[in-house]
Amino acid sequence: MTSIEATEILGPMYRNISHDGKLALDELGLAPGAALLDVGTGAGKSAIFLASNGFDVTTGEPETDTTHYANLDWANNAEKMGVRERISFVPFNASQMPFGGASFDAVFFFGVLHHVDEDLRQAVLAESLRVAKNEGAVVFFEPRKETLKKVWTNDPGHPEAVNPADYLLEPKRSVQHIEGRMMDIFIVRK
Ligand SMILES: C[S@@+](CC[C@H](N)C(=O)[O-])C[C@H]1O[C@@H](n2cnc3c(N)ncnc32)[C@H](O)[C@@H]1O
Fold it and tell me: Into how many domains does the chain fold?
């Protein structure tokens, strides 16, 4: 699959998602076939990016989400990109995940935390660290200011970005920040 073909299927932003996703993957150094959780399926772009890099991906979002960010045809996108069999979908709310402790090598939130109800965000961070393996990590991608300005022209109700460090129950845990092309990347190590 060339990047031109991928852009035709997933739109022009996929190039930036791949660029910023790669920055995080380079930092994490995950083993091939690692088990990853992609929270907030949406159109499946982040799940597809991770699966395309050779990882086994579980993705999900709340069944009750009636916003235009959810219940999209991610499976059709994954089929077209040739990675459908590497992605499993499980409906869940990230504040109460249906997974055992230490199930995933890393947990990804690509453009998601700012969509989570503010009163759930502390629980979402605690749950993410619970399901991440020891030595694992939780990675948040939140839109940069310039990105948000563009988003607001088409989607004026889109929420502001948030800093995951504001919702950590253990504030002394270090949070690594990487400036991406489109997103700010925050890596919380378990
Ligand atoms: C903008 S979309 C994410 C885009 C997606 N990562 C992609 O690459 O196409 C925001 C997602 O956050 C999810 N979301 C919002 N609140 C959530 C929660 N409490 N638990 C899990 N997912 C949630 C929504 O259902 C939606 O799937």
Answer: 1
Ligand 1 pocket mutation pick from 39, 41, 113 by most atoms within 8 angstroms of CB: 41
**Sequential pLDDT tens for the chain (190 residues):** 788 899 999 999 999 999 999 999 999 999 999 999 999 999 999 999 999 999 999 999 999 999 999 999 999 999 999 999 999 999 999 999 999 999 999 999 999 999 999 999 999 999 999 999 999 999 999 999 999 999 999 999 999 999 999 999 876 788 999 999 999 999 999 9
Q: How far is the CA of 41 from the centre of ligand 1 (A)?
A: 5
Which pair of tokens denotes residue 42?
């949406």
d(CA 35, CA 97): 16
| Residue-number span of the structural domain to which 7 is assigned | 3-189
Q: For the domain that residue 73 is a member of, what is the CATH number?
A: 3.40.50.150
Helix (H) or strand (E) holding 57: strand 56-60
